[in-house]
Amino acid sequence: MSKLRRHRVIERRRVYSGKIVGLEVDRVQIDGREHVREVVRHPGGVVILGQLPDGRIPFVRQHRYPMDEVLLELPAGKLDPGEAPEASAARELEEETGYRAMDLQLVHRFYSSPGFCDELLSFFFSPCLVPGQSKPEEDEILEVELLGLDEALLLAEEGEILDLKTLTALYWLKATRDASTP
Amino acid sequence: MSKLRRHRVIERRRVYSGKIVGLEVDRVQIDGREHVREVVRHPGGVVILGQLPDGRIPFVRQHRYPMDEVLLELPAGKLDPGEAPEASAARELEEETGYRAMDLQLVHRFYSSPGFCDELLSFFFSPCLVPGQSKPEEDEILEVELLGLDEALLLAEEGEILDLKTLTALYWLKATRDASTP
User: Fold this and answer.
1) CATH assignment of B45-106+126-180?
2) What is the rounded CA–CA span in Å between residue A27 and residue B9?
3) Inter-chain residue contact A110 with B163, CB threshold 8 Å
4) Is B140 a catalytic residue?
5) How high is the ipTM of this complex?
6) Tens digit of each residue's pLDDT, chain A (182 residues)
7) Best residue in B111, B119, B157, B174 for a mutation probing chain A (most A CBs within 10 Å)
8) Where are the domains of chain A?
9) Are A42 and A119 in contact (CB under 8 A)?
10) pTM
11) Rounded to 5 degrees, what are φ and ψ at B136?
């Protein structure tokens, strides 16, 4: 594995430190040649696939500023400073959807864009949601939508779900459910 | 939908323009209150899940600078200026793995991190790879690995695959294959 990790950092420049992201630009040397590495720093986050007793899954529809589009996504959010992923998942789920998870199972951890960003997401599954108390964040404007898995997968096939973490979670559930069906 | 899209941009500041990413920091007004929106700009990219005649899938193992880890991923890359996603997919696949796709099917387009980044990825599937000619990019150092789908899914379950787009593609193939099995 060592031959894949053979860079040497010559200089690190902090270009930006913000509310959600930071940006570093490094000069690195690999095999005697100099390269630039641009790195977006992110605190990490969570995404939650939960199911009500009838199997329906809470989604949120919200405006996403970077592409100026309204996207349909699973509830998600970034970690607060010092916050554990599981606590964050419980908080974000209830804040965004008004449902509470009786049981949160960590399914996967993954990097959303490993080529240029260190954002690590923890994906939780909850098979048993109950009504909680909705407290949307002050600058969050969203609509909750309840969809069955097959309904959501159809929307995905039709290109109506454009969020990568949401697609992963849906296909994971589909693959898992199919595998457990005799 | 209009109630979800009601911001007004007060000021846009270009903080950085680089080789792969750009960074903009906007001041926006929503319902009379001012907020900051940090946006990472990215040219977009591709990811390719291809299968050899025996069903094996080419993966690449490479060092990812942002987290200083070696990750196992499907071949992928960013779009060159003016390059169509399909041409990019054909190019990246052959450059990274040495295999050529006889047929590239666009399965999905998705945003990797819609909360703060506009990166749009096109995911292609190719059921029929043939040997091509490998031409790794000058600053790309990677190892090619051939894995069956079940083998790859086992690695995913064990937490050995940490790249989100790779997980999506694998679970998509698993879900699709299971659905077509009588």
Assistant:
1) 3.90.79.10
2) 34
3) yes
4) no
5) 0.93
6) 457 877 899 999 999 999 999 999 999 998 889 999 999 999 999 999 999 999 999 999 999 999 999 999 999 999 999 999 999 999 999 999 999 999 999 999 999 999 999 999 999 999 999 999 776 655 558 899 999 999 999 999 999 999 999 999 999 999 998 777 65
7) B111
8) 8-41, 45-106+126-180
9) yes
10) 0.94
11) -60, 145
